[in-house]
## 1
Amino acid sequence: MTTTLGMRVLKALAVTLIVVWSLAPIVLGVTTSLSTQREVNEGPSHWFPHHPTTQAYRALIGGTTGEHSGGTVTQRGEFVQSMWVSAELALLSAGLTLVVATMAAYAFGRLRFRFGGFLLALLVGTMVVPIFVVVIALFKLMANAHLIDTKKGLVLVFVATLTPLATWLLYTQVREMPAEPEEAALIDGCRRWQAFVRVVIPQMSSGIAAVAAILALSVWGEFLIPLLLTQTQNAKPVTVLITEYVGKYTTNYPILAAGGVLALIPPALLALALNKRITGMLAGS
Amino acid sequence: MPGRWNREGDRSARETQILGWILVVPAMAAVGALILYPLVKGFQQSIQSGGILFGELPGYVGTRNYRDVLNDPTSRDAMRHTLEYVLLAVSLELVLGIFVAVTLHRVFRGRGFVLAVLILPWALPSVVSGVLWRRVFDPDNGLLNSVLLHLHIINQPQVWLASGRGAIIYITLVHVWGVLPLISLIFLAGLQSVPDEVYSASAVDGAGPWRQFRYITLPLLRPSMAIALTVGTLLAISIFDEIYVLNGTALNTRSILIQVYNTTFVEADFAHGTALAFVLAAVTAVLGGFYALALRRSTV
C-alpha cells in the first residue's frame, strides 16, 4: 500500500486529536485545582493559573472556613475518609465477586450438571435488568435489615450486581482455554476440585486479573447505588461526596476540581498499569 | 471389569454434579436474593397504591400507576429527553468510534501510549467526568463563554445548561467522552479480524483509501456496529450521573432515570417511581435481547 505524505499528515493530525480529546478535560481539571477561586471567577477566566497554589487541596483535606469557600463547604478529614471508603468498597466487592464468579464460571464452562444451562441463562439474563429498578426495592429491604448506610450493605449489593458480568467474562475465557492440562491432572488421579484449584485457576490468572481491574474500576465509579443507600460519612464513597461540593448558586471550582483530580488518580493508575489486559478483555466482550 | 469402570464413571459423574452445584450456589444466591427477589418486590410495589402518605389505602391498583406515569407531562418530557440523549450519543459514538478505530488500527510509533491514554476517560467515574467538564459550561465565567466572547462569536455570557436543546447536547458530549473508549475498542477488535491481505489486494486493484474504507472496512465492521449500537444505547438510556453533576434535577435536562430518582426519593412516591423504572426496564430488556442476538450472530 502506498502512503502519501498527505495521508501521513492527516493520520498524525487524527492521532493528536484523539490524545487531546482524551486528556484535555483531565489537564483542565488539574490546572483548575491549582488555581485560586478568584482567578477562576475573574473574567476573562484563566485556563492556566498564573500563580499555581495548593490552596484548594488544603481546603479540601483540611476543611474550608466559611468566608473563602465560595458556595462549597468541606469538613476536615471527610474527603480522605471517603477515599478510603471507596478503596475499601472496590477491593472488597471486586475480591468477593471474583471468588463467586470464578467458581461459577468454571462450573458452567467445564462441568456438566443438571440445570447448568438454565442457571447460566438465568444469571446472564439478569445483566439486562437495569440496576435502578432493583435498587428502589432494595432500599426498603435493606432498611429492614439495617444495612442502609453501611459498607457491608453496599458490598453485598455490588457483588450481586457485578457477578453476572464477571461470570460471563470468565466463562468465555474458560471456554476458550485448552482443556488438556485439566484432563491430564484428572488422569493423574486428581479429584475434580483439586484440578480446578491447582490447574484451572492458575490457567485463568490473566483473565482474572483483567476482570478484577474492570470490577474495581466499576465499583470506584459507582454513583447511583451509594447515593441512594448511604446517608452519612459512615459509608459515603468519594463519588457521592464530590457531588455535594457543587454549590446551589456558586461553586468553588478549584476545590471541586481538586476532589475530581484526587478521585481519578487511583482508577487512572490502575487503568494505565493493566491497560493491555483491560483493552483485550473489553474488546473481546 | 467393565462393571467396575462403570461404577467409577458413575461416581465421577455424581461428583461432577455435586461440585457443579456447590460452585454455582454462591453466585445464584447473591443474584437471587439481591436482584431477582427485589425485582419481584419492586413489581408488586408498582401495581399497588402509594399508601397513606398520599391519602389513600394501600392496595392493588392494577395498571393505574403505569397509566399515570405514561400520561404525566413531566415523565413524558423525560422520555423525550432520554430519546434525544440516546440518538445523539449513539450517533456520535458510532461515527467517532469508527474514526478512532481506523486511525489507531495500523501499527505506528507511540501506538501503545495512545491506546493507554484512550481508555482513561472510560476508567474515570462518570461523576468525575462531570466535575471536570463543569467549569467549561459555567454561566458566569465558564471557559466556553470566555472563548466565544473573546472570539466575538457571542456578545454576552450564555447560561449554557439552562437552554433546553443545547443543555442536552452538552451533557451528551460529556457522556460520550466517557463511553467512546469502549466503543472504539469494540471497533478496533472488529478491524483486527480483517486480514491485511484484503487491503493490499484491493490497493493492487487500484482502490484508494476512501474506496477501501467504503467497500471493505465498513461492511466488515457490521457485526461490531451491532454490538457498539446496543452497548451505546444501553449506557445512554440509563444516563444519570453526568446530568446529576452538571445540571441536577433541572426540568430541561431530566432523563427517565433522573425523573425516577426525583419521584421516588425526593417526592417519596415509591409506587409511581417504580412504575416508571419498570417502563424503562422493559425497554432496556428488549434492547438487551437484541444485544444477545447480535453477539451470538457475530461470534458464530
## 2
Amino acid sequence: MTFQFLSPKPHSYTDKVDADGDIDMLLKTERENFETKVVTPGELVTHATQYMGGHGTYTNETNERLSSVAGVVDRVNKLISIRPLHTRYTGEIGDLVIGRITEVSQRRWKVDINSRQDAVLLLSAINLPGGVQRRKTEADELQMRKFFSEGDLLVAEVQGTFQDGSFSLHTRILKYGKLRNGSFVIVPPALVQRCKTHFHTLPCGVNLTLGLNGYIWVSKHTTQTVEEFAIYSNENEEIDQENREAIARVCNSISALSRHFMCINDKTIVLAYEASLNFPVKDLLKLDVMVIITNEVNEKMTSLKAGMRR
Amino acid sequence: MAGDRRRIQGPEVTVAPIIIKSSDKEKIQLKDVSGQRRDGRNLEDIRPIFLKTGLISQANGSAYIELRRTKIACGVYGPRQTKIPSFSGKGNLNCEIKFTPFSCLKRRQPYRDAQEKELSQLVFEALAPSIRLDLLPKSTIDIYISVLENDGMASCLAAAITCASVAVADAGIEMLDQVAACSASYIDGDIYMDSDLVEEQRESGSLVLSYMPSLNEVTHILQSGEVEVSLTTQAIEQCTDTCSKIYSVMNHSLLESVKNRIQ
C-alpha cells in the first residue's frame, strides 16, 4: 500500500485579509451573516455556539447569543460584540481625554470624562510647576486647588483602569494639563477615532485637541510652549476678533458634523471649515446650513477616497 | 370643651356623602352593535403608536411616544457616578414620572404628589429586571418621564414604561430585553384594550402588563378592581399578544435611529 503525502494547502476561506495582514477565519457564507447587521436589545445574534461573546452580548438558557444593546454587530474572527452608537465613553489605557474637575478630595481630583464613573487624577500623577521632580508633600496636598480647582478643564491620558469601570488619569507630559484660551465642544465619543496625534494646528490658525471621550477643545494658536511656571494659570490671554471668529467657526463646524453623525478628525474639520466660509459664523447653527456644509464635506471626502484608490 | 388635642376632633354626627350620578356619562355608548368603539377600533385593538428616539439632545438617551391623546417624553441620564458615597455592587435605577400641570383634565400641582411617587415606583419595578444593573457598580441611571398629555391613567403608565425602555436602549445601556407594556380595562364583562379616559371612567377594573417579548418573560403585572379569573387570564393573553406588536414598533424606531447614524 502506498501512501501519498500532499503538501499543506491553504484553506479556501483565506480570501479576506485586512490591513494588518490578518486572515479572516470564517467562511464567506458565515461572514455575510454579520456584515452591517443592526440589532436591538434581546435580538438573537447567532445560534452557533462556536463564537465568543464580547461586550453587548449575553447567552440565554439555550446557549443562544443575544444582543443586550442597540447597535451594529462587530465581529473579529470568532469574537462577536455589539457596538452601541450612542453611549458613554469606555476608555482604554493610553487614550487622550479631555475632562472637567468635579471634586477635589484627599490627594486626588475627580474628573468628569463622560464615562460611567468619574475618573481619578492622583496628585502624584501631575507635573509640578517649574518641572520640579520630587515627591508630593503635604504642602502640595494643601494647595491642590492652586493646580486644579472645581470646574477646570484639562487634557490628560488614561493611565489605568479600576475594577468598577473607572479610570485613573495622568498629566505628566508638558502637552497635557490645564486648558485655557479657547472653547469647548461635546460630540458623541463614537465619532472621534484613535489617531497618531490628537493635537492639531488647523490652517486657519486654531489649535485643536480631540479627546477620545468626545470632548473637544478649540483654542487660540500659540507658537511658543507655555512657560513651565504658568501651566496652572487661570488667566486667559488676549484673543483678537479674527481669532475669536475662527475659533467660533471651528466649534460650529464641529457641532454641524456631530449633528449629522459624521466622523470627526482634523481632515473633516478642515473641510467643514472651508465649506462654512460662505456663511457668517452664527448662521452655522441653522439646520439648513448644517445640511449644506455636511453634504459638501461628504462629497469632498468621497472624491478624496476615490482619488486615493486611483 | 377642652378635649384631648391629640384626638381627631370630628363632628358628632356623620352624614353619608351624596353621590351624584352624572346622567350624561351613562349616555355615551362605548361600543356599537358591531363591536366597534367610539374611535372606530375593535375591543382588542390599540391606538396607533408614534415612537421616536433621540429628541432630548442633552440626555444620554431619550424617546417620545404618542398614542392619540396620550403624549409622553422620556430622558435617560447615565450611567453616571452615584453621588452619595455608599458602595453598592449593583447600579442604581432611579425613575421619576412627572405630570405636567396641563396634562390632565384637572390642573395638577407642579410639585411631586403621592400618585406620581406610586407610578414612579411601578415604572421602576417594570424596568429594573430588564436592565443589567450588575454590570454597573457604583453607578446610577436616572430616568425622567414627563407626561405631556394624559388620556387614561393605566394606558399612560403602560406608555411610560414602553417609552422609558426605548430611551434606555437608546442610551446604549446593556439590557436583557426591551420591556413593552400594555393596558386593558374590564367594562361590563368585556376587555377593552388600551382604553382611553372616557372608557377608563366606566371600568370596573384594569390590568397593566409589562412583558419582555423575545425572552417571553413578564416583568410586572398590576391589576385593580373586581374581575373573574377567566377574564383575567384572557386579558393577560391579549396583553402579551399586544405587547409583541408594540415591541415591533419599539424595534423599528430603534433600528431607524441606528441606521440613520451609520449611513
